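ok trying this again, last paste got cut off
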Amino acid sequence: MASEPCQGDGSTRSVQQNPRLGSAVILFGCERPDCLLSDTSSLPLPGAVAGLLRLLFGLMLYDRVPRGLAGVNTPLPYLLPLLFLPAAVGVFLCIT
């Protein structure tokens, strides 16, 4: 077997080689600045909603969902019930 040249530990991979990393950067890039803007200003719109609207308009301009972004978002609907569990427990505790 011929040995391959050392490629490094992979920490210098670009966003093009790792589409999920680029997609996570896109998601955080849409969410965090709008949350900070909403916190520092008197906008009645929550920052997460403003970030989602910015992501929606960006995807409408791009005219398709990038492959990496679709791969990141695929498991999210399956985890959505976990987000409602604390609220359901709180309502149940308030009722009893």
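PB: full thing came through this time. The longest helix spans residues 19-40.
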